[in-house]
Amino acid sequence: xxxxxxxxxxxxxxxxxxxxxxxxxxxxxxxxxxxxxxxxxxxxxxxxxxxxxxxxxxxxxxxxxxxxxxxxxxxxxxxxxxxxxxxxxxxxxxxxxxxxxxxxxxxxxxxxxxxxxxxxxxxxxxxxxxxxxxxxxxxxxxxxxxxxxxxxxxxxxxxxxxxxxxxxxxxxxxxxxxxxxxxxxxxxxxxxxxxxxxxxxxxxxxxxxxxxxxxxxxxxxxxxxxxxxxxxxxxxxxxxxxxxxxxxxxxxxxxxxxxxxxxxxxxxxxxxxxxxxxxxxxxxxxxxxxxxxxxxxxxxxxxxxxxxxxxxxxxxxxxxxxxxxxxxxxxxxxx
Length: 335
Description:
- The structure is a single chain.
- The protein has helices at 9-14, 50-54, 64-80, 105-113, 178-188, 216-228, 240-246, 268-296, 301-315, and strands spanning 3-6, 30-32, 40-43, 46-49, 95-99, 118-123, 143-147, 161-167, 189-200, 205-206, 250-260, 322-332.
- By secondary structure, the chain is an alpha/beta fold.
- The protein has one domain (28-333): Vaccinia Virus protein VP39 (Rossmann fold).
- The strands form 2 sheets. Strands 1, 2, 5, 6, 7, 8, 9, 10, 11 and 12 form a 10-stranded mixed β-sheet that branches.
- The radius of gyration is 20 Å and the shape is globular.
């Protein structure tokens, strides 16, 4: 799979860019990907993108285990959203932007379902996309992946996309960036174009109120929040509606979906979602928190693993009825 990097013209010309020097394609707004973006470091057996760690962009792994976790997470989202990839009704996009593509699952599905649509996925990491030999990776030429830091102003031209998808970006977007991030999305949308946002609030809740501050799951949430609160807003899911309205978007709709961590629900559909969530919860608890807790809060790895083990037991306990709040919002650019 070929990757390119977005080109930030003024910075490239002045040499004041954190996109390292590379050869720019004369007929595009991208550059050949500098190998620096591929450099990784290993922390407690997990691989992280060096560039992303150094610039406090993301603290999540970029290894094959993380790619597999994101693929499974995408399957859970498919269950939650009844396999709907695009939420606004009667939206048949010709050009789509996927912000923070991760392992590429959503972008690949959209490219397959809409073969006449141009799909561009952007992420700071090029590590988790399957290569051409992967059996699950078989799409046409309508899909392209690019590397860029979405904390920087978008370099796409105005009125370019029919739909912008932004999912699980709270761990990647700077806390102070969200208002300008939404404004950037609005700028690159065509008049009448849509944005859809999906964010998990990593503060574990209990449907029957039985979860207390003494539980490991609640301690996990509290420690995770505090470990990155100087650079990230992990509560942004609760503000998605307000952010869209403040940016001047119309037809704004939002909802909160409780995602059960195991199959405790008596409702068959939610019980099925809980069963799927149970399979990946341990991986999520570790992936999201390993670097922040051990490197930013300086928790020992043994202490971290004990917390994860206890948190997983609680997540699998149906009597606690635990869930993650999942916030979803859509908005339309005025036409």
